[in-house]
């Protein structure tokens, strides 16, 4: 017979004690998420969350929510890896900033950012169509590049500037794990595809649009890239329309939901039943599904778990504090 002391031989008592502690505490909710400083590569100190953001506590029931509500087979690794983080870091770091993108990449999720042209043809990452009352399309890059676009958030953000898409793609180059949802505000699929391919990051870009015609145009210029269709209403009709096209040029969909916290079935638009059926249709065509919670709806971590139990592959959120605390509690 073999000697059963091999466990003690290969695993020191300290390791066994660590494993025991992990098992002991794995079912407990995580502690409050605190505001913590990080620094980017220019040594500027920035904050993880707004100082006005409420402390996030993951409710104890969220830890075993997937077990209580049933699971779709989606792994937690997939939920984190495929998560859609709105405007870079949601309500954390300044939106669409390089600091926000880097933070979400560090956390292992996918940031979303917006692309538009300046008057002189520079592609920038900026959501709004205007700055200080002037249309971005009427501003040159020289007029915008030194603008303190996040200064209103506090002195710690006074150094944040608008990034160019050159800067975004440069940060992705050589890092295949850094992907981005790219919301095309006015650039057009061809211009974005050509730039992404020039940097060799086409496969890391997920073109984000509500129009399947634009998704197919993107794929024609960047076949190695992915395309995501956002659906904000009329879910059944839009999913069926995409299915009628065999989801041509579409790799994933992002479904925006409204919730009613505390309900047994929290989804009110679309309903839980409509959401589940739409996810099933997308999956039959090999399409990945994110369920997106706008604003403070993203604080309801129980709703995250219920979305996964209905078949969603991952989550979309603006409340990264709640999302990553929830993931960490599972």
Count of all domains? 1
The total count of helices amounts to: 14
Q: Using the 3D structure, state the CATH architecture.
A: Alpha-Beta Barrel
Question: How far apart, in Å, are the first and last alpha carbons?
Answer: 40 Å
Arrangement of strands in the largest sheet: 3-4-8-9-10-11-13-14
The helix fraction, in percent, is: 25-40%
Question: SSE order in H/E notation?
Answer: HHEEHHHEHEEEEHHEHEHEHEEHEHEH
Output the structural class: alpha/beta
Note the beta-strand portion. 15-25%
> What does the largest sheet look like?
8 strands, parallel, barrel
Named CATH topology: TIM Barrel
Q: Strand tally, please?
A: 14
Overall shape: it is: globular
Report Rg: 21 Å
Mean pLDDT reading: 82
Q: Point out poorly predicted stretches.
A: 1-71
Give the C-level CATH assignment. Alpha Beta
CATH homologous superfamily?
Phosphatidylinositol (PI) phosphodiesterase
Describe the protein's architecture and organization:
The protein is of the alpha/beta class and 330 residues long. It has a single domain, classed as Phosphatidylinositol (PI) phosphodiesterase (TIM Barrel), CATH 3.20.20.190. It is built from 14 helices and 14 strands. The chain has helices at residues 6-10, 13-25, 60-63, 65-69, 76-81, 98-106, 141-144, 165-172, 189-198, 212-221, 235-244, 272-284, 301-309, 320-329; strands at residues 37-39, 45-47, 84-85, 110-117, 123-125, 130-131, 134-135, 180-184, 205-209, 226-231, 252-259, 267-269, 288-293, 314-317. The strands form three sheets. Strands 3-4-8-9-10-11-13-14 form an eight-stranded parallel β-barrel, surrounded by six helices. It has a two-stranded antiparallel ribbon with strand order 1-2. Helix 9 (189-198) packs parallel to helix 10 (212-221). It is globular, with a radius of gyration of 21 Å. The model is unreliable at 1-71 (pLDDT under 50).
């Amino acid at each position: 017979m073999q000697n059963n002391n091999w466990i003690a031989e290969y695993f020191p008592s300290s390791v066994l004690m660590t494993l025991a502690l992990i098992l002991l505490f794995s079912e407990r909710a995580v502690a409050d998420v605190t505001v913590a400083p990080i620094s980017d590569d220019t040594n500027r100190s920035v904050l993880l969350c707004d100082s006005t953001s409420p402390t996030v506590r993951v409710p104890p029931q969220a830890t075993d929510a997937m077990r209580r509500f049933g699971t779709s087979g989606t792994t937690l690794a997939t939920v984190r890896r495929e998560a859609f983080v709105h405007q870079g870091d949601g309500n954390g770091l300044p939106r669409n900033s390089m600091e926000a993108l880097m933070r979400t990449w560090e956390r292992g999720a996918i940031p979303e950012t917006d692309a538009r042209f300046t008057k002189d043809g520079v592609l920038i990452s900026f959501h709004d169509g205007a700055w200080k009352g002037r249309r971005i399309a009427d501003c040159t890059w020289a007029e915008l590049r030194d603008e303190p676009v996040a200064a209103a958030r506090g002195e710690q953000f006074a150094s944040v500037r608008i990034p160019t898409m050159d800067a975004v793609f440069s940060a992705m180059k050589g890092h295949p794990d850094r992907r981005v949802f790219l919301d095309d505000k006015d650039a057009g699929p061809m211009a974005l595809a050509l730039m992404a391919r020039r940097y060799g990051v086409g496969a890391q870009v997920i073109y984000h649009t509500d129009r399947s015609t634009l998704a197919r145009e993107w794929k024609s210029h960047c076949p190695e890239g992915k395309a995501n269709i956002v659906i904000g209403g009329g879910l059944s009709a839009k999913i069926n329309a995409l299915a009628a096209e065999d989801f041509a040029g579409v790799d994933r969909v992002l479904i925006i939901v409204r919730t009613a916290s505390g309900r047994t079935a929290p989804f009110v638009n679309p309903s839980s039943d409509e959401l589940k059926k739409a996810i099933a249709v997308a999956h039959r065509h090999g399409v990945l599904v994110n369920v997106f919670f706008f604003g403070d709806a993203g604080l309801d971590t129980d709703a995250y778990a219920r979305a996964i139990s209905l078949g969603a592959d991952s989550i979309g959120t603006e409340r990264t504090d709640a999302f990553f605390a929830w993931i960490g509690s599972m």
